[in-house]
């Protein structure tokens, strides 16, 4: 069996389990939604820091939403990593988007708030 790259950069010859694309898409959407919702408690906590009020509850919500978003992002990225050579380039980049573009900057923002 020979493997040849197709037009999208994927290598033909492997098989994907049914529902892999849907699994990745669903995980990416939910991860991005959870990361976006976590911004609101971060803003509330930042405003609380300016006013010297309690920021524990907003930070708890922010960390919880961020952690849940990270788990969902990993849930979407792991099948993509498992079937990396058989996925088209667009699906590969979609699967790792939450971890690279959203999770890392938000983790830095949370650490800055805590320090």
**How far apart lie the N and C ends?**
55 Å
Helix/sheet category? mainly alpha
Strand content: under 5%
Shape: elongated
Helix count, DSSP H or I runs of 4 or more residues = 4
How can the largest sheet be summarized? none
> Which residue ranges are poorly predicted, with pLDDT under 50 across at least 5 consecutive positions?
1-11
Mean pLDDT: 81
Q: What is the N-to-C succession of helices and strands? A: HHHH
State the helicity in percent bands.
over 70%
| Rg value | 18 Å
Please characterize this protein's 3D structure.
Helix content is 72%, strand content 0%. It has 115 residues and is mainly α. The longest helix is centred in the middle third of the chain and has 27 residues. The chain is built from 4 helices and no strands.
Protein traits:
single chain; 115 residues; mainly alpha; 72% helix; elongated; disordered N terminus
């Amino acid at each position: 069996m020979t493997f040849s790259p197709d037009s999208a950069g994927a290598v033909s010859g492997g098989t994907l389990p049914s529902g892999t694309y849907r699994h990745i898409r669903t995980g990416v959407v939910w991860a991005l939604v959870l990361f976006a919702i976590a911004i609101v408690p971060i803003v509330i906590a930042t405003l609380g820091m300016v006013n010297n009020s309690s920021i524990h509850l907003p930070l708890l919500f922010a960390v919880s939403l961020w952690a849940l978003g990270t788990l969902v992002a990993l849930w979407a990225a792991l099948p993509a990593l498992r079937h990396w050579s058989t996925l088209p380039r667009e699906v590969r980049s979609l699967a790792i988007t939450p971890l690279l573009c959203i999770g890392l900057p938000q983790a830095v923002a949370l650490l800055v708030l805590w320090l």
